[in-house]
Every structure is written in structure tokens, then in C-alpha cells.
Amino acid sequence: MKILKIEDGSGYFWLVGSGEWRKIDEIDKDGLLSLLDLYLDADAQMDAPDDNNLRNDVHKIIYVHIFQKLSSLSESKSSFKDDSERLYFDEINKYASA
Fold first, then answer.
1. Do 67 and 48 contact (CB within 8 A), yes or no?
2. Residues in Cβ contact with 52 at an 8 Å cutoff, skipping those fewer than 6 apart
3. Angle, vertex CA 61, rays to CA 59 and CA 33, nearest 5
4. 88: exposed, middle or buried (C-beta count within 10 Å: 0-12, 13-18, 19+)?
5. Where are the domains of the chain?
6. pLDDT tens-digit profile of 1-52?
7. Distance CA 63, CA 78 (A)
8. CA 32 → CA 25, 29, 79, distances in Å?
9. Would you say the pTM of this structure is higher than 0.70?
């Protein structure tokens, strides 16, 4: 599933809740968390930024930073996912037994 795309010189992110593409400069905390969830749970694809395909400077800054952060997670994706699941598992068990 593609979660970041570049089209007509602008960057876009996939917003799961609305099922549509939004401009990258409209992203908020919930949008970032949604991208992170999609990236960790699915085989996510992202268009790679370069100097020519993002003409909007604001989009370029935001898109490149998000792309780099998500790409850096790919090396530690499985351990990050295991750690987060283990953390939530402990919390769920704690409140389920109360």
C-alpha cells in the first residue's frame, strides 16, 4: 500500500480515516500516527523524493523528513513492532485483570 506519493510537484499522504490523499503540509499528529501504523502493519510504499520532483519547498521539507524517519525505521521495524506490542500487552493485561 502506498502511504506517501509525489504528484504534480507536491507531496501527499494517505489518510486512512477519510480514505483520501491529503497534501503533506496538512498533516497533523493523527496523520503522522496513522502513517506510522500503516508503515508498521503493512507493506508500505513511498515515492522517493529528489531535487526535481517536489517543486513546493514546504512540501519538500516536510515530505523529506517524514520519508527519512520512516525509512530509518525499516532497519529496526521488527524490533520496534515487537517492543511496542510487548508494551501494550503488559498494559492490556494490567487493566483487564483489574
1. yes
2. none
3. 80
4. exposed
5. 2-96
6. 899 999 999 999 999 888 899 999 999 999 999 999 888 877 889 999 988 8
7. 24
8. 12, 5, 20
9. yes
Separation of alpha carbons 95 and 85, rounded Å: 15
Residue whose C-alpha cell reads 503522522 in the numeric block: 32
- SS3 sequence of the chain: CEEEEEECCEEEEEECCCCEEEEHHHCCHHHHHHHHHHHHHCCCEECCCCCCCCCCHHHHHHHHHHHHHHHHHCCCHHHHHHHHHHHHHHHHHHHHCC
Where residue 83 falls among pLDDT bands split at 50, 70, 90? confident
Gap between the Cα atoms of 15 and 22, Å rounded:
7
**Under a CB-based contact definition with an 8 Å cutoff, are residues 47 and 10 in contact?**
no
